[in-house]
Target: DHA1 family bicyclomycin/chloramphenicol resistance-like MFS transporter
Amino acid sequence: MFQSARDPAKSGSTRVLSLREFVLLIALVMSLGSLSIDNLLPAFGPIQANFAIADPNDLQLLITTYMVPFAILQTVYGPVSDALGRRPTLMIGLTVYLIGGVVAATAASFSMLLIGRAVQGAGLAATRVLTVAIIRDRYEGREMARVMSITLMVFIIVPMLAPASGSLLLLLGTWRMIFATVLGFAVLVAVWFYTRMPETLHPEYRRSFAFGQIASAVRTTISTRVSIGYATGIALMMGCLMAYIGSAQQIFETEAYELGVLFPLVFGCIAAFMGAASFTSARLVRRLGMRRLSHIGICGFTLVAAVQVGVAFIYDGRPPLLLYVAIFAISQFLYSLTVPNFNSIAMAPLAAIAGTASSFIGSYTTFVGALFGLVIGRSFNGTVIPLSLGYLCLGAACLLVVLWTEKGRLSLRSQPEQGAAKRALPVAAE
Model:
């Protein structure tokens, strides 16, 4: 069973967590970030009207101002968690997030709303770092990839439902109700985590919060070819996701396809394909391995992106809705086969510095992804061409990075990978 509720080096009571509860709790903590973005998308129009924003592209700042501190603060939470432990560090982050949520919900101007979003991002940076570190504390190799995929499968339910729930809340009240509801959900998740999740940091991996040790851990991460290579691949793929999230409302709800209230349905269908991919990855990763599965994913993603660009140009930037959604859903399916396994491969050699390594990788991938996403999103011109070109360019660049990392060879055959066993203090399989 999931053993110690505390640092194993200390005395005290224990908590018992089943694999099912562990996965669900980690997924809900992860989902706070997605919920804080996707739930807000239907509110772009009301927010634009409320604050008399002339350029609708400026609404993408609601995503960017969240993502930039989300990226930067990850460099802090990882080293802090290596020193203090995962539990207290995550609780600090959630507290900051709640403060930002209050500021955003009560904002009297668009500038104040952006400040609240920035504080929210700064707080939730802890969830990006620590959910990965907690899983890495407990698992290695293909088993880590399997648990990560199962977690993401549960996590994907949130973006499937978030726009629809945001639209429903808009029917019941104003956009401020969206922030208030998410705040309530965050409080429930924080209480559950605090009362049920034990400390997972192994005593032998506890590190002092010293610049020299942090710098050494970062150097180790950067100098590990597999880690920095696959982290760069994640960053490029995240650029695609950020561009999609930033452009989705304009593409589907307003300017390109003008779906209006049907936008959440399309958004949820695409998210469902991502969830199906996470389920598929969890089923196949033990048999095929992380490399083979993710290499199939990135090759397929790049090919589908090429088709996506071709279709976009053939139809002058507005392909038939069902055709474009079908192609896009396939690309998101392949995205979700790729990125979780990239993440597991990047973290595999870094068990002794999991917190700081997860912090650096998370910050690096989020910042680069947000930057690419902003550039592509701001290029929106009323058609799907900028987004499609962005997917192709970033997908091809990711494939080249993987080839560099693997010294020109992709894994076409299943191979044994290091560290397939669970770490000490494992969660019991059910």
